[in-house]
Amino acid sequence: MDIVLVTTVIASLFLVIGAAEPLAAQLRLPYTVILAVLGILIGSGAIFFLHTELTDALNPVAEAILGLPIRSNVFLYVFLPTLLFQATLGMNLRRMLDDWVPILVLAVVAVVVATLSVGYALAWASALPLAVCLLVGAIVSTTDPSAVVSIFRSISAPQRLARIIEGESLLNDAAAIALFGLFMGFVMLEGSDPSLGAALARFPILIGGGVLTGWLAGRLTVWVMSLLPQHELAQISISVALPYLVYIGAEQSIGASGVIAVVVAGLTMNLTGPGLLPPQAWSNLREVWDLLAHWAMALIFILAALLIPRILEEVRAGDFMLIGVVVLAAITARSVILFGLLPLLTVMRVSPAVDGPYRAAILWGGLRGAVTLALALAVTESVSVPGEIKRVVGILATGFTLFTLIVQGATLRTVIGWLGLDRLSPMDQALSRQVVAVALQTVREDVARTSENYELSRDIVRSEAKRFGKRLDKAVKTAEESVDILDRDRVTLGLVALAGHERDTILARMRERTISARMADQVLSDADRLIEGAQTHGRRGYQLAARRSVAYGRAFRAAVWLHSRLRLSGPLARMTADRFEFLLSQRLILRDLNAFIHGRIRRIHGRQVADVLHDLLSRRIEAVETALEGLRLQYPGYADQLERRFIRRTALRLEEREYTTMLEDGLIGSEVFTDLMKALGDRRAAAEQRPRLLIAPQRAELVGQFPLFADLDEAALKRLGGALRTRYANAGEVIIRKTSVVKSVFFIASGAVELQSAGQSWRLGGGEMFGQMAILMQKPRRAEARAIAPSTLLTLDEERFRQLLDGSEALRKAVRASAEKRGIDPGILLSDDHAGE
């Protein structure tokens, strides 16, 4: 085949891809539907011109189109890894983990239910072997989310809904292809029906092998990329190699699922990459993969569509009935999941509530696409599959895909309109009118200032001001006549806007490199939770999300357990350092939000709502400060190191801005600028390195580090070490209750504790003690001690404490200082002999 002609055809396909997007927007149809229709038209045109006697001039072009090397392995080994890998890189994993139960259940259970439903329905309606029917079920069970997600985003559907659909689609590709490989093996064994035991026996290798291969490859790749911080193009090139090598390695070497291996490799890079790669390099890598995935998705759709006319050439009348069976069975299976299983998960409180209209939209938006066609093509190409089975599988999969794309895809936006998902709620409509009125008032003020600055003609200014004033009066009147917005709803809308502005501020700080990419991902996830919490449950949802952002999660508690029980301090050190940096970043962001409340929200929602938001924001700032203070008391030196690092990074950002301004003003040339930026990049790489956090040492070492025991000799320290007992307390845990009788003194080895008594509170850090007042005073004090950070405490019973007090002047001084700090006469605590010393 002429290489020039083939190159021309492929280049022309890119022109078609470029024209498809604006055409889809003009026709208000999903982009993938337009690509499929254009591919079918091109394929049909090529067949027509090749066989017509009207002209032979276009025969070479038609032959080139029909002769393109389109094989199933091209789809599965070239395009599919690209699509899967980019999808995992673009996922917000922290937010996906919030909904892992519905995503996993919908992905795995939906695929299994669809496979069984279609398989057994076909077996009932035809004479095909059960293995072939189940193979068809596996082929048509995977969905393409691109159309429905793009439409949901265009109508501002809840982000959580789109996220569940994206996560489900990514994982159901892996599940469907794994089932396809399983049943394909039975079909190639001369149509033998599968046994459940044989099917289940292969799944551990398919799933487990893919997970292990993907994780190892992802970790190794990120490590290699981190060794090349100054070579961004090399990092991107290595990332491009990863999905293909891991896919081929899993499939060909160990017989595992290549799809699962690619997904796990992408998830691993998504989790570890932002913390090990420079922020700009990670951002550029994501942009490159977005472009590669766009091309791959477009090419896989249009090339697969080119094959549809040839596949349908052998269609028979009875095939239409079987296509109808597949359509009904697949829609029924998806309905069972959406209207049966999903509400059940909501009742069980493991899945977010999804309204009926949205479930109906998801049902009708279950389009099939290129993956379905690629799997069907793999069957038709196999020499081990009988010819009639290849024909039937190809026609059923292609017919079903065409139904979903042309019938469902073309009517999806109309169905969404019928369901009322493209219209604002009455509250949003009222808010929209009020926002317009406030915005026009601001515009009028700005236009007036502009007119004065430029000394425009007074007659023109007067005429335009009159015209604009009419529009403003109409907007104000409309806003006043609209349905009133309840104060509760105003607070909700204000909180959503505040969280949205918080998210924008985070992105701006990330671009300035004031916040590292790793921390930006976490604070962005928290901002998304705040938005969704406010949208779903108003003020209560916002407060719950805010408290969650500073709380110690299960992973942190597990790290504390590993450190305290198994002496594995690595996870705890890493998570504590992450928490330090996160709290510093969050404090920086929160302090910028008061101006937004005063300047924007107050004008739209009024002073009362603004005061409520100020109060909620003040509580968040106080919670962050408390959590940060707890860490400062626990690791005072480390907090100083992080703040120094922040100042250095800020200085580098300002330095970069100055160099850029000088270049734009022509004060320096590009050669000087490049040299300055190279030196700046080296300093920035050094500033990006986070200082290492050392967790507290063993108990024997801890005792020797306490200033309270500085005057004890080695023998006394050894006896004390044997008498002390270790206790670990998580943040928020009450150590001493007001109603309890204190019989031990607590020494803080690491962490921070807050004491409350008689309306006063004190915060203690490492090296300090508490509980001694209750033991030494003649009448017990009603005080409460609560850990405000994960803390390691050393406890000493009352008898040994009194013995220690008799022999340690440093301890007696500490007791006196503590008593004076709290307004207590030291003479009440210590004996006359001790008090006089």
UniProtKB/TrEMBL annotation:
Pfam families: cNMP_binding (PF00027), Na_H_Exchanger (PF00999). The chain crosses the membrane at residues 6-24, 31-50, 70-89, 101-122, 128-149, 170-189, 201-224, 244-268, 288-308, 320-341, 361-380, 392-421. InterPro entries: Cation/H_exchanger_CPA1, Cation/H_exchanger_TM, cNMP-bd_dom, cNMP-bd_dom_sf, RmlC-like_jellyroll. The keyword Transmembrane applies. GO terms for cellular component: plasma membrane. Keywords: Cell membrane, Ion transport, Membrane, Sodium, Sodium transport, Transmembrane, Transmembrane helix, Transport. It is found in: Cell membrane. It is a multi-pass membrane protein. It comes from the Bacteria. GO terms for biological process: regulation of intracellular pH; sodium ion import across plasma membrane. Residues 708-822 form the Cyclic nucleotide-binding domain. One of its GO terms (molecular function) is sodium:proton antiporter activity. This is Sodium/proton antiporter, CPA1 family. It comes from Maricaulis salignorans.
